[in-house]
Amino acid sequence: MTLKSWLAKAQKESWALPHFNFSNLEMLKALVQAAQEARSPVMVGTSEGERNFIGLREAVFMVESFREEFGVEIFLNADHSKSAESAKKAIDSGYDSVHIDLSNLSFGENVKGTKEVVNYRGPTSIEGELGYLPGESKIQNKKFELKPEDLTDPDEAARFVRETGVDRFAGAFGNIHGISLDEPALYIERIKAVRKALSEDIALVLHAGSGIPDEEIKAAIAAGISNIHISTELRSEFREELEKSLHKKGETEYAPYKIMGPVVEGIKEKAIEKIKLFGSVNRV
Ligand code: G3H
Ligand code: ZN
Question: Which residues of the chain have pLDDT under 50?
């Protein structure tokens, strides 16, 4: 099945396709194991920082080889591409999907740049974004204040999708990247309104899924979200497990693959927890 058909199925059956970010082979390995064990299709994504660290072609080849060897339904996304050039580079490298994020620009400039990527794409699935999402994918010791005008406007969303031709649409619904001191509630009514304003074949994406309470996630899916991004919770799992593994009492381990074992296991378990929450378990 293609990414588009998985997203259409998720929307029709009211569950969400997970999108997990990764920074290295160990994280990807854990996500593949989670997908296989929980029989879930998954998107795996690299931000610009993540893919510059791994290498774009290397990320494509790693995903392809896991797909072939384990038969997992896995799709690689170039997450938060901050310019048309960066998005095109990912397309040229063989990514299955690109998220072009020009949400910090004016509506007109966002449409123009997003359209440029859509016209370039070939078979690559494209996601566009409109609205203001604060924060970064880390634990943030501060509060964020969101104003009603930061949320995505349903009419503007419909116009954006019409004018750009994107396949997936990401909006701002009170979601904040990373985990902050006051994880605010999602504006579920706004999700419903944006969903209603878009044609059925457009997938509605929720970024910044870390730290959002389970009940809110379930309500967001019921309101029409069919794709959810998780990064910070995996990163924090990576860090915690690595620290524990390195500081195991009475042991001085030097073999990297032994040090990394519990890290892979921890990330896999966290991903399976999200797969169950999103309802994508046992779909493959
Ligand atoms: O695109 C990445 C996600 O939106 C990750 O957000 O770090 O809040 O999970 P998160
Ligand atoms: Zn995001």
Answer: none
